[in-house]
Specification:
Number of domains of chain A: 1
Largest interface: A-B, 12 and 20 residues
Strand order of the largest sheet of chain A: 1-2-3-9-8-5
Number of strands of chain A: 9
Radius of gyration of chain A: 13 Å
CATH superfamily of chain A: RNA polymerase II/Efflux pump adaptor protein, barrel-sandwich hybrid domain
CATH architecture of chain A: Beta Barrel
Strand order of the largest sheet of chain B: 10-11-12-9-3-13
CATH class of chain A: Mainly Beta
CATH topology of the domain at 4-55 and 149-238 in chain B: Gyrase A, domain 2
Helix content of chain B: 10-25%
Distance between the termini of chain A: 22 Å
Oligomer: heterodimer
Order of helices and strands of chain A: EEEHEEEEEHHEH
CATH superfamily of the domain at 4-55 and 149-238 in chain B: Probable tRNA modification gtpase trme, domain 1
C-alpha cells in the first residue's frame, strides 16, 4: 500500500511497517542534498515529530514522522551519500522503516492520486 | 498572497526564465536561485570552467565632478570611504566600504576610476539608500546617476578569459581589478577583471537592451553554464568573502570584519590623508589597538552544515559562548561544511577549537584561515 502526506513524504506499508521517504517533488524542491541526519533505531515518534533532517547546500529542512510509531530500521546509505535521495527518492533513497503504533492510522493519509493533485 | 507582481525584474529576467531558472524574491527582485543543473553542479562548474551570473539587481552609479576635475570626485568619495581613491589610477578598481559615524558598515562596494568619472557598484538591497546618501553627502560636488538602464553580469571561472576573448581579444591584457570600456557584440560595455567567487573572471556592465544578446553569445560557448544565487553564495563563502547584511552591517566595523586590507596607509593615522571618513575615530583606534571581536573562518569536523545564527562556545556543553556564525553552509569544492562568524579575540586564533550549536547539540569546529579554497586571481 503506497500512501503520501501533505508534507511530501511517501510510505510503503507492508505488515504494519512503513518504509518512509521524501517524494520526487520534495527532492526536486530541496535541490542537491549534502547532509542527512536520521533518527536512532528504537526511537519512538508521534505523528508530526522531527524524525530526520535534510540539508541542501543552502538550507536545512525537517522530515516529519508521518504517523505514530517506532523506528525499526534506518537507511545508512543516504547518510553516507545524500545524493541518493536526489537520484532515487522513492527507491534507494528511503529514510527509515517505522513500525506503526496503529496500522489503521494509515487510512487518514493521501493516496497517490490525491497527492498528485496536491502537487499539481 | 501573491507578492510576485511587486517584484522588480532585471533586463535578463526573460532569459533567466527561459533557461529554466527557479525564480525567488531577492532584494526586491525576481531572481534565479538555481538553473536546471542545480546548485552543486553550478558551483563546481564555475570552479572548473566558467559560470555566468545575472547580478543586474546591484546598483551601478556614476560619480562625475561638477568641476570637470575627476580629483574633486575622488576627494568627495574619500569623505565616505576609508579607502585611497585619490591615488586610484585610471582604469583600476578598488573594494570600498561606506562607514557610519560609529565605525559600522553601511554597505560594501566597488569603486572604479574611469578617467573622467568614477563608476561605483553597490549592493542591491542598499542601492536606493546608498544613492540617497551619496546625493546628500556629495551631491553638491558631484553629479550622480543610478544606471537602471544597464545590466550587470559576472563571468567567473578559469575559462572566463578564453570565453570572453572570443568576443573581445584584448581581454587577455587585463589584470585583476583592471577596468576597461569595450564593445561586445556592438554593445558598449564596461568590463572589470573581478568577481565574487574567488576565481579569475569578469564583471560586465551592458546596456539593458543588448544584455540578452551578449549573454546568449556567452552562453553559446560550451564551457559556460548559467549560475544562480544559490551557487553564488556557496562560491563566495568558500572564497571567504563577506555578504552584506550577514557578515558585515552597521553593527560591525571594518577591523572586526578583518577588512583592514581595504584601508590603505594614506588613510590611516600618520598617512597623508588620514581619517576624514565617517567613524574614523573608532576605526583608526581599532587599527592601532585591535578590536574586541574578529570575523573568522570555521571548518566543522563532521558533515553537518553549521549555518548563520549558530552560537559558538569554547566548551562542548555550550556554557562559554564566545560568538555567532554569520554565514555557513556546505562548500561543494571543499566537500564539507564551511562557515564564518564573529568570535571574541581570545578565540580568534587559527586552529582554536570551538563548538557550534546545531539543533541542540554542540558540534566541534576549528577556526581556520580564509579563503577555504585558493583564489586564482590574475594579478
Amino acid at each position: 500500500m503506497l500512501k503520501f502526506t501533505e508534507e511530501h513524504e511517501w510510505l510503503k506499508i507492508e505488515n504494519g511497517v512503513a518504509t518512509v521517504g521524501i517524494t520526487t517533488h520534495a527532492a526536486e524542491q530541496l535541490g542537491d542534498l549534502v547532509f542527512v541526519e536520521l533518527p536512532e533505531v528504537g526511537a519512538s515518534f508521534e505523528k508530526g515529530g522531527d524524525a530526520a533532517t535534510v540539508e541542501s547546500v543552502k538550507a536545512a529542512s525537517d522530515v516529519y514522522c508521518p504517523l505514530d510509531g517506532e523506528i525499526v530500521e534506518i537507511n545508512e546509505a543516504i547518510t553516507a551519500d545524500p545524493s541518493l535521495v536526489n537520484s532515487d527518492p522513492q527507491g534507494a533513497g528511503w529514510f527509515f522503516k517505522l513500525k506503526l503504533a496503529n496500522a489503521a492510522d494509515a487510512d487518514s493519509l493521501l493516496d497517490e492520486a490525491a497527492y498528485k493533485e496536491l502537487v499539481g | 498572497m501573491d507578492g510576485s507582481s511587486e517584484l522588480k525584474k532585471t533586463p535578463l529576467h526573460a532569459l533567466n526564465v527561459s533557461l529554466g531558472g527557479r525564480m525567488v524574491p531577492f532584494a526586491g527582485y525576481d531572481m534565479p536561485v538555481q538553473y536546471p543543473a542545480g546548485v552543486m553542479k553550478e558551483h563546481l562548474h564555475t570552479r572548473a570552467a566558467a559560470g555566468l551570473f545575472d547580478v543586474s539587481h546591484m546598483g551601478q552609479v556614476t560619480v562625475r565632478a561638477r568641476s570637470g576635475d575627476n580629483t574633486d570626485a575622488a576627494r568627495a568619495l574619500e569623505t565616505l570611504v576609508p579607502v585611497d581613491i585619490v591615488g586610484l589610477p585610471e582604469g583600476r578598481q578598488r573594494y570600498a566600504l561606506f562607514t557610519n559615524d560609529q565605525g559600522g558598515i553601511r554597505d560594501d562596494l566597488m569603486i572604479a576610476n574611469r578617467g573622467d568619472h568614477f563608476y561605483v557598484v553597490v549592493n542591491a538591497a542598499c542601492k536606493d539608500a546608498d544613492f540617497a546618501y551619496m546625493q546628500e553627502k556629495i551631491g553638491d560636488v558631484c553629479d550622480l546617476t543610478l544606471h537602471d538602464d544597464r545590466a550587470l553580469v559576472a563571468l567567473q571561472g578559469p575559462h572566463a578569459e578564453a570565453v570572453l576573448a572570443e568576443l573581445w581579444a584584448d581581454v587577455s591584457a587585463m589584470r585583476f581589478m583592471d577596468v576597461r570600456a569595450c564593445d561586445l557584440h556592438d554593445a558598449h560595455c564596461i568590463v572589470s577583471r573581478s568577481g565574487y567567487t574567488g576565481e579569475d573572471g569578469f564583471e560586465i556592465s551592458i546596456p539593458a537592451a543588448l544584455a540578452e544578446t551578449v549573454c546568449r553569445r556567452l552562453l553559446d560557448h560550451p564551457d559556460v553554464l548559467p549560475v544562480g544565487l544559490g551557487a553564488r553564495d556557496s562560491l563566495r563563502l568558500e572564497a571567504g568573502l563577506c555578504l552584506y547584511g550577514n557578515d558585515i552591517d552597521t553593527g560591525t566595523t571594518p577591523v572586526e570584519a578583518g577588512l583592514e586590507w581595504a584601508i590603505q596607509k594614506v588613510r590611516r593615522t600618520g598617512g597623508e590623508r588620514a581619517g576624514g571618513f565617517p567613524g574614523a575615530d573608532v576605526i583608526l583606534d581599532q587599527l592601532e589597538n585591535g578590536a574586541a571581536r574578529r570575523r573568522v573562518g570555521l571548518r566543522a569536523e563532521g558533515r553537518a552544515p553549521v549555518r548563520a545564527g549558530a552560537v559558538l562556545a569554547t566548551d562542548p556543553e555550550g556554557q562559554d559562548i564566545v560568538g555567532t556564525v554569520t554565514s555557513g553552509g556546505f562548500g561543494p569544492s571543499v566537500d564539507g561544511p564551511v562557515a564564518m562568524g564573529y568570535v571574541d579575540g581570545k578565540a580568534a586564533a587559527p586552529a582554536t577549537e570551538l563548538y557550534a550549536g546545531v539543533r541542540g547539540k554542540f558540534l566541534p569546529v576549528t577556526v581556520t584561515a580564509m579563503p577555504f579554497v585558493k583564489n586564482t586571481f590574475k594579478r
